[in-house]
Amino acid sequence: MSTKTALGDLQVSPIGYGCMALSHVYGGGLTEAEARAALHEAIDAGITFLDTADVYGEPRPGSTGPAGTNEEMLAPLLAERRGDVQLATKFGIAGDTVARSGDDGAPRVAASGVNGRPEYVRTANEASLRRLGVETIDLWYLHRPDPAVPIEETVGAMAELVAQGRVRHLGLSEVTAEELRRAHAVHPITAVQSEWSLWSRDVEAHVLPACAELGIGFVPYSPLGRGFLTGTLTREDVAGDFRGGTARMGESWDANQAALSLVSEIAEAVGASNSQVSLAWLFAKGREFGVPTVPIPGSRRAARMIENLASTRVELTHEQVARLDAVAGLVRGTWNIHENPAWISSGRE
C-alpha cells in the first residue's frame, strides 16, 4: 500500500493518530511531555496525520466551553514539526461532553451543546489556531451538525475561512448522507469522520455510498471498537471510564467474546495482531465501497501505533473479509456512547 493516501487533494499517512487517547478520556492520560514524545516517535515511523478537536482534554479549572487542552498539548510539537504533519481538528461541540451519571457513578457522555452558528464558526477557528500555535489547519471538521442551524450556513462560514487561508480543507463528522450532500453543494468536503469498525457498521447503509458518489474520503474513528477488538483489554480496564457504561462493553462483555474470538482466529491465520486485522478489514471495505479510507486509532503508546501502521501490509483474502463481515452479527449491546440517539448519524437517517 502507498505510504500516503489521498483525501481529495490532501495527502496523509495511511493511518492517523487519534490524539484524544493521549488525554484523560480513557481513565487517565499522559503528561503533555509523554504525549508529545509518543507523537514524535509515531511521526518518525510514518504516522503524520494528527487528529484532535477543541473539546478534547481535561478542562482548565474554572474554564467554560471546549477544553482546548489537547490542542494546547500539540502546540510545542507543531512548532518543531509543522511541515512534517497533516493537522486535523474539529469544532462545534460547545462544552464538555463527559459527565457522571447513573447509579454506578461511571463516566458517561451526557447531553452537550452543539453550536454551528456562523459567528461561532469564526470564534472557534480563532481559538483553535491560537491554541495550536499555527496559521492554517489542514483539515477542519464540524464535529456535529447543529440541529438549530442549516448545515449550509455552517459550511458557508467554514468556506470563508478557506478563502482567507486559515483552513485548507473542510470535513464533517457524524453527518447523514443528506446532510453531506447539502454541505458539499456549498463547498467541497474532503472527508467525513464517523465511527466505523468491524462492530460499528451503520455508515455502510447511506453515508459511505454518498462519499463514493461525491468523491469524499472517509476517516473512521474508534476503528478498533474503543480497544475491545484488540483483545488486549480486560473488563476491569474499562470499568472506570465511559466504555464500561455502555451495554456493549458492560453487561454484554461476556457475550461479545464470541465476536472477539472470530477476529483472533483470523489474526492467527494471517500472522498478525487483532488490531492489524481489524484495520486491514477497513482498508479492504474502503476499496469495496470505492472510498479512500484513513482510520485514526489512538493509543498512549507509540509502539501500538507503529504496530497499527503495519496493518497496511496485511493482505486478507476475500474469504477472510467475508468471515470478518460476520463479526457485527455476533455483537450484543448498543454502542452509542451518548444518551441522545441523534448524536450519531444513524440516529438521524
Describe this structure in words.
This protein is an alpha/beta fold. The protein has one domain (5-225, 289-313): TIM Barrel (Alpha-Beta Barrel), CATH 3.20.20. 37% of the residues lie in helices and 14% in strands. The protein is built from twelve helices and eleven strands. The strands form three sheets. The protein has a seven-stranded parallel beta sheet, with helices on one face. A two-stranded antiparallel ribbon has the order 1-2. 52% of the residues are buried.
Notable characteristics:
349 residues; alpha/beta; TIM Barrel; two-stranded antiparallel sheet; 12 helices; 11 strands
In short:
The protein contains twelve helices and eleven strands. The chain is an alpha/beta fold and 349 residues long.
**The number of domains:** 1
Order of helices and strands: EEEHEHEEEHEHEHEHEHHHHHH
Would you tell me the overall average pLDDT?
A: 91
Per CATH, the superfamily is NADP-dependent oxidoreductase domain
Largest sheet: 7 strands, parallel
What share of residues are in beta strands? 5-15%
**Low-confidence stretches at least 5 residues in length (pLDDT < 50)?**
96-111
Instruction: Assign the CATH class.
Output: Alpha Beta
Provide the spatial order of strands within the biggest beta sheet. Answer: 3-4-5-8-9-10-11
- Name the quaternary structure: single chain
Rg on CA atoms, Å? 19 Å
Known CATH architecture? Alpha-Beta Barrel
Q: Assign the CATH topology.
A: TIM Barrel
- The level of helicity is 25-40%
